[in-house]
Amino acid sequence: RQYWVEVKGVAEWRGWAYEGAKIPLNETAVGGVVYKPLMPYVEADKPKTVAVKYLAVYTGEFRDVVGLPNPTAAVELCGRQFQADLTGRVYASAETDGACQLKTAAWPLSPYTIAAIGAATTAVGAFLLKRKKA
Q: What SS3 class is residue 19?
């Protein structure tokens, strides 16, 4: 005996499957986000449509225009906000039943670069002031 089975979600499948067959659900990646199904398979035990839940996962490392880590980075995944740590790394995860939109944002200069520019400017200013007095 066969049943018509439809699997809805990030990766979709539909077709006839033998009674007792286990339709495997695979991890898939879309737009830099990895989607891991929260169940390993769908069993063909009757005609059915199954909406599969996924864990959407994004990992990123953000650097500013001069290459220093950028802790100002923020990521929005599936409507949830995630902030970078002090090394500019972000780990974002959210449960979903479909592909999510990924949005990222960060300052072009990290606080580390701004501090370095400030320190260099102060040092040059102090040097010039000392030189002018001499």
A: coil
